[in-house]
Amino acid sequence: MSMLVITGTGTGVGKTITTAAIAALAAGQGQRVAVLKPAQTGVGPDEPGDLADVLRLAGPVTTRELRRYPDPLSPEAASRLSGLPTLPPSEIAAVASDLNGEHDLTLIEGAGGLLVRFDADGASLADVAWSLGALVIVVAEAGLGTLNATALTAEVATKRGLTVAGVIIGSWPEDPDLASVSNLQDLPVAAGAPLLGVLPAGLGDAEPEEFAAKARAGLSPWFGGEFDPECFVGRASAQK
């Protein structure tokens, strides 16, 4: 049994697609997989959230959502605006531990970045990861500006006693620019951890079979995939 915390360098970097890709590969290997989304923001009560995308792409894995806030803000700000209860890290950790006891792999997908606040005391996903002793996967953007955001995320994680297992590019452009190609070599340095995958842009629109195949091609053998960072860097560099 193992737990992974999936965080990002910001919002919209591909955390949900990355989470679904890791879940799809594990489920395809016969593992019992659970995906926990502690706080979903910017989605109404009857609207599909991130976990609906995970189920659509990864298949019948166990999913849990603990809080839902209608406004597209941080969980703490959305809670304050809506008057709905905040989400203490202790509750997240307790649910994650229960899921982990019944599954081979439990994935915990954050909202935004590592230090986005869950409550007025400043509790964040970093506190959850620390209390669980879970490895952290950082999902980063491909292009200009990603190195600083990745380095900041990794530095904070390390100072808080967390282990960053690797970095994954959540949306690789079809026609990458010079910065994106260069970042393939620099992102592992910024993260202090290996490049564990590169997922193509638009992957969330794929049908489940195609999604699984591209997830396998885009994720490291560490997840059960076939991604080879040296080969990928070589191919990308040759195109420039």
Automatic annotation (TrEMBL):
Could you say which EC number(s) this protein's record lists? 6.3.3.3
Describe the subunit structure. Answer: Homodimer.
List of residues binding Mg(2+):
T16, D53, E109
Q: List keywords of the entry alphabetically.
A: ATP-binding, Biotin biosynthesis, Cytoplasm, Ligase, Magnesium, Metal-binding, Nucleotide-binding
Pathway(s) per entry = Cofactor biosynthesis; biotin biosynthesis; biotin from 7,8-diaminononanoate: step 1/2
Instruction: Tell me which cofactor or cofactors this protein depends on.
Output: Mg(2+)
> Where are the active-site residues found?
K37
* A Pfam match: AAA_26
Protein name (record)? ATP-dependent dethiobiotin synthetase BioD
Tell me which PANTHER family the record gives.
DETHIOBIOTIN SYNTHETASE
A single GO molecular function term of this UniProt record: dethiobiotin synthase activity
Source domain of life is: Bacteria
Q: Which residues bind substrate?
A: T41
Q: What is its main location?
A: cytoplasm
